[in-house]
Q: What sequence folds into this?
């Protein structure tokens, strides 16, 4: 390498920019523009008027963006108000002072969409419409593709026609609303149908949704029906033997009875009941948003990610995805991710092995069967702060095998489904703190566990100043699943909602519980109660202000000062000034 080039590179790094040789030429950081509607990959991309159609890293790119290597300081800006239908792989690194940035232009949202539009044919007298003229539409989608992918109307993901109907389209796998049957009557692979259906063999057009170990819902095709008894293949399923099995049926014409449902009716047509007049329809089959692969110091900000589905395949249909451990310096800020169907349980933001990570100010909503943010290690130095996560079918924020993590000031609401956890810390974490978060209407507001002492380092978990509100059927607001979790501090939290506040595990070590307020601990796993200023305040009944407080928080209405004082005095006594109540307010 020539000395002059070394000097130029060093000066560029110092100034927060960089120069790189590409195709025998050297270029410095640039600002590129992408407009999926009006752009052309034969342009140079250097102004909104000369935008590319595709972003660098999109496999469908041609021309200049196809072979472009991004350099530190590069910006890729997506046109405001334009839907981008493509996925992007980022494989070039920035630097700490000069990250590579993917962002939206100012104005209306720029949305990366994982679906393709589908033609809708209004129902009239067509035999496929099954008498639903004026109510349903026919969509041109292959039957098998429809069952594997996700269909969207304007309100979000639709669901295959189901019996019993779930109370919310957001939670089709809510097992409390499934049918119940003695495990001995179904575990051999056959069961009596609760509905009338003609005999069939082979493809009966019906799916069986089963709740099995380990707390998952799986789908199995019904292989035959004879004299009211249905058969399926139980191979590989582990049924619960100490309780009844829960199940639902999907895919028969008589189940199509609610807006938001669909039913394949022929090899190329799907019958759908839209939830809104004039709905537009789309179909997703696994295309995600942005994957960062072996690239460090990348920023993703102010973008929208919508209408994605994974079809049950891990790594598909994810908004922001990292699956190559060892990268650093990823920032994900002020994005909106909504209407994703993640049947494999992954997150809208799903990351593995990222250090020096920042996830702040994002809005995540309407994630069917999936999580909001999932972080798996090994990773060091993470901040997850100020995010709003609402309507989640699995876990809102999940942290595992991570070190030095701060999870603060997040608002989380409406988290249900079979793994309806608000905040979760599992396995070999170390030094992970959850502070000033609001979790409301979650099946379990917080869950944690250790790693059975597979590592010598204790978990060192902190839960402090959180407002934790579980659903009435919850096992507890803050739950330990055991596995010898070590060094846990639980202090200054308010735990409301269900009948149980804490549910601890006797295998855990070094757990301190102090200055908390709310529902009492489970009697099966009592805690060591401190005295004096460190004492907890447990109530068997709801405090008089609980309903008013939760109503305001659910609606995101500021809590009046007088109500703040009442809450703080009841929860923390005369020494309440300055204590945070979740992400909502600080005691006056």
A:
């Amino acid at each position: 390498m020539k000395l002059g080039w070394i000097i130029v590179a060093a000066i560029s790094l110092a100034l927060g920019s960089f120069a790189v040789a590409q195709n025998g030429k050297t270029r410095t950081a640039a600002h590129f523009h992408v407009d999926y509607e009006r752009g052309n990959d034969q342009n140079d991309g250097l102004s909104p008027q000369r935008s590319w159609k595709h972003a660098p890293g999109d496999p469908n790119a041609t021309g200049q963006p196809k072979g472009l290597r991004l350099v530190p300081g590069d910006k890729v800006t997506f046109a405001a108000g334009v839907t981008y239908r493509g996925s992007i792989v980022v494989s070039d690194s920035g630097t700490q002072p000069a990250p590579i940035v993917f962002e939206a232009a100012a104005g209306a949202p720029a949305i990366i969409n994982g679906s393709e539009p589908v033609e809708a044919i209004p129902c009239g007298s067509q035999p496929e419409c099954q008498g639903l003229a004026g109510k349903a539409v026919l969509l041109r989608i292959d039957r098998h593709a429809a069952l594997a992918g996700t269909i969207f109307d304007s309100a979000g993901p639709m669901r295959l026609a189901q019996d019993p109907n779930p109370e919310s389209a957001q939670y089709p796998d809510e097992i409390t609303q499934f049918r119940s049957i003695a495990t001995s009557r179904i575990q051999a692979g056959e069961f009596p149908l609760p509905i009338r259906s003609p005999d069939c063999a082979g493809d009966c057009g019906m799916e069986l949704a089963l709740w099995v170990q380990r707390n998952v819902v799986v789908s199995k095709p019904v292989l035959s029906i004879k004299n009211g008894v249905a058969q399926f293949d139980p191979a590989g399923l582990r049924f619960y033997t100490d309780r009844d099995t829960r199940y639902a049926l999907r895919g028969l014409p008589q189940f199509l009875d609610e807006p938001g449902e669909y039913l394949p009716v022929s090899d190329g047509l799907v019958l759908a009941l839209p939830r809104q007049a004039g709905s537009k329809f789309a179909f997703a089959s696994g295309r995600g948003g942005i994957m960062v692969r072996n690239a460090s110091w990348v920023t993703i900000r102010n973008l929208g990610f919508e209408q994605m589905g994974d079809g049950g395949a891990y790594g598909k249909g994810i908004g922001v995805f990292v699956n190559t451990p060892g990268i650093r310096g990823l920032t994900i800020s002020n994005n909106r991710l909504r209407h994703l169907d993640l049947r494999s349980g992954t997150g809208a933001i799903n990351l593995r092995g990222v250090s020096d990570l920042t996830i702040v100010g994002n809005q995540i909503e309407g994630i069917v069967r999936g999580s909001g943010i999932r972080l798996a290690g090994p990773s060091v130095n993470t901040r997850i702060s100020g995010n709003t996560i609402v309507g989640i079918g699995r876990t809102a924020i999940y942290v595992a095998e991570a070190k030095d993590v701060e999870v603060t000031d997040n608002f989380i609401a409406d988290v249900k489904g079979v793994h309806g956890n608000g905040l979760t810390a599992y396995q070999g974490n170390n030094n992970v703190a959850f502070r000033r978060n609001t979790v409301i209407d979650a099946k379990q507001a917080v869950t944690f566990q250790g790693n059975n002492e597979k590592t010598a380092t204790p978990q060192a978990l902190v839960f402090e100043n959180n407002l934790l509100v579980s659903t009435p059927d919850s096992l507890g607001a803050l739950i330990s699943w055991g596995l010898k979790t070590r060094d846990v501090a639980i202090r200054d939290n308010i735990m409301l909602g269900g009948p149980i506040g804490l549910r601890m595990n006797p295998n855990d070590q070094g757990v301190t519980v102090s200055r908390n307020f709310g529902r009492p601990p489970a009697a099966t796993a009592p805690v060591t109660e401190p005295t004096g200023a460190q004492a907890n305040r447990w109530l068997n009944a709801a405090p008089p202000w609980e309903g008013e407080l939760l109503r305001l928080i659910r609606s995101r209405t500021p809590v009046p000062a007088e109500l703040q004082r009442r809450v703080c005095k009841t929860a923390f006594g005369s020494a309440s000034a300055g204590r945070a109540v979740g992400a909502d307010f600080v005691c006056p």
Observations:
- The chain has a mean pLDDT of 93.
